[in-house]
Amino acid sequence: TCALPICFPVTIHTLPHNEIMKRVHHAITTTESSRLTFLNVFDPGYAKCFAALFMLYNPQDQSVYVFDSIYETDRLKISPIKVWEKRQEILRDTKTENIRYTNIYDSAATGFASTIRDLPINRYWEELMRPSFKQKGDEDEYFRMINDLCLHNRFFVSQKCTDVIAEIENYLTDDNGKYPDDNNHALDCLRYGVIS
Question: Which end of the chain is less enclosed by CB atoms within 10 A, N or C?
Answer without folding.
Answer: N
